[in-house]
Design a protein that fits this description.
heterodimer, A: alpha+beta, 2 domains, elongated, B: 34% helix
Chain lengths: 297, 223
């Protein structure tokens, strides 16, 4: 037990000493890790913002179902409650005949001739859907058109919807592909940097093995060093990310103020925690794997 | 070692080599470059595999060693490598203490043992230096100190006096004899004729991977 504690003490001390004595290599690995993780995090943030933009655009596309004058109000309420539960549906509004007329008057206030000839209210009440996901619009429109006892007609800007769905699909697919590729590149570069650092000290591993060190005795300091490099590099990346966010977020929000996107603080916080964990895990596993190949002495 | 053969890319480095060294014995392994001396030592340390034959070191069948048994096996052998193989980023004290560190000894015990052995090799005043700050002879003495600090049963030395001045060489050989006199089986590969001729110990002569002669009191000659 005492021997194991002594070994543990040695491993921790050797890791710290190794980091210091190979400080040029350590610094290079930390900087590489930080740069790769900042790039990855920046892309994740950009991708998230793009997705938010597409979703926000989707919310701007509406479906309007005009209610027959003779439709039973209880049936309309029932349908609206059902629609609220549907995936992709953001908001369900009921516009009464009176509201429709008021809106009409407001919109055409400069055409008094037209307004004045209206004796009765010819405008129907309507149910308006604001969408979270415009992709479900065509299906919903068909379904509502089938309810002829309730709705006169259903209006959907199909060309806009189709374009939005297409933009959304391309954006999500391209974003996912880029994230996978960039994650792979980041992990490869970080792991490779650690591999080179370990390679430079392969003779050290060999010597330790030849004087009777166990695999874990040799591996221990390298894993701690790798974890340290990953952690420090990732923490630098996280700090850079937060600083960039604090500088750029107000400007970005102002530029795209036409879209209801709130730049989310919790997203940046979660992203920072995520990259710190990635750094820690890749650093330690990268060292573990790199050392393994030199242990067979 | 019985009937040991080792080939590199089909070329024999050792061909049907058989030798026996008794516990506590001192023997020289001599021969020109490429004679197979280093290969033989590497096989004894299980640093190199072999193609045929049987090798027993301290009663352990080297070919059958696996996993943690290898660690235990190596802890009973001290080695002075031809290229010293000191850790470049560790001080003399840390290099010499390494075999005790890997065994999990307490720092206080390690410091005591390292101080003793450094005194023995006359390097006490250089314990905090790095290998690059030492002469070739001093580096070899550090390598020897590391090899014996954990009191091994067997000491293998590969050209321990190569490329160093005669004074350091004599000092190292004196230390090897002293260590051997404490019961450590010692095998020294060398092509230093002066040392071999002066000491008049057992000489195992190798050439092209074979044993040419095994003389109880040999001299270095090219005949």
């Amino acid at each position: 037990m005492t021997a194991k504690l002594n070994v543990l003490r040695y491993v921790l001390g050797a890791a710290m000493l190794g980091l210091w004595r190979n400080r040029t290599m350590t610094l290079g690995a930390v900087v590489t890790t930080a740069v790769m993780l900042v790039t990855l995090a920046a892309f994740l943030a950009i991708n998230d913002t793009l997705n938010e933009m597409v979703t926000a655009l989707g919310r701007k596309s509406n479906l309007i179902a005009y209610v027959r004058d003779d439709a039973r109000p209880s049936r309309v309420t029932e349908i609206m409650q059902d629609l609220e539960q549907r995936p992709g549906v953001g908001e369900v509004l009921f516009v009464t005949k009176e509201d429709a007329l008021r809106i009409f008057r407001e919109r055409f206030f400069d055409q008094r001739d037209v307004i004045d000839i209206l004796q009765a209210n010819p405008l129907p009440a309507s149910v308006e859907l604001r969408m979270d996901d415009p992709a479900v619009l065509p299906g919903l429109a068909d379904e509502l058109r089938g309810m002829t006892e309730v709705f006169e007609s259903v209006a959907v800007p199909l060309d806009v919807v189709e374009r939005l769905v297409s933009i959304s699909n391309v954006s999500r697919a391209a974003g996912t592909a880029m994230i996978i590729a960039l994650t792979a590149v980041a992990l490869f570069v970080i792991a490779n940097t650690i591999r080179i650092a370990v390679y430079a000290r392969r003779q050290e591993i060999e010597i330790m093995k030849l004087v009777g060190a166990t695999d874990w005795f040799v591996r221990g300091p390298f894993i701690i060093e790798g974890a340290f490099i990953g952690l420090v590099g990732a923490t630098l990346a996280a700090v850079a990310l937060v600083v960039i966010y604090l500088q750029l977020a107000p400007t970005i929000t102002r530029i795209i103020s036409f879209l209801p996107i709130a730049t989310d603080v919790s997203f940046v916080r979660n992203l920072a925690v995520f990259i710190v964990l990635v750094g820690l895990v890749v650093g330690s596993i990268g060292s573990y794997v790199s050392v393994r190949r030199y242990l067979a002495v | 070692m019985q009937g040991v053969t080792k080939r590199y890319d089909g070329e024999p480095a050792l061909a049907d080599v058989s030798i026996a060294i008794a516990r506590g014995e001192f023997a020289f392994l001599i021969g020109t470059n490429g004679a197979g001396k280093t290969t033989l030592l590497r096989i004894l340390l299980h640093e190199e595999s072999f193609d045929a034959g049987v090798v027993l070191v301290n009663g352990v069948d080297v070919a059958r060693i696996r996993g943690s048994a290898l660690t235990k096996f190596r802890r009973r052998i001290g080695v002075v490598f031809q290229d010293t193989r000191l850790l470049p980023n560790a001080t003399v004290r840390e290099n010499v203490g390494l075999p005790l560190q890997v065994r999990g000894h307490a720092n206080r015990d390690i410091d005591e043992a390292v101080a003793d052995v450094l005194e023995r090799v006359a390097l006490s005043d250089k314990s905090e230096r790095f290998p690059r700050q030492l002469s070739g002879g001093e580096q070899r003495k550090v390598a020897l100190a590391r090899a014996v600090v954990a009191k091994p049963d067997v000491l293998l030395c590969d050209e321990p006096t190569d490329s160093i001045n005669p004074a350091h060489a004599r000092e190292i050989i004196g230390l090897l004899l002293e260590i051997n006199s404490e019961g450590v089986t010692t095998l020294v590969a060398t092509h230093d004729s002066e040392i071999v001729n002066n000491l008049r110990r057992r000489v195992i002569r190798m050439d092209a991977g074979t044993i040419l002669a095994d003389e109880p009191v040999g001299v270095f000659s090219t005949s």
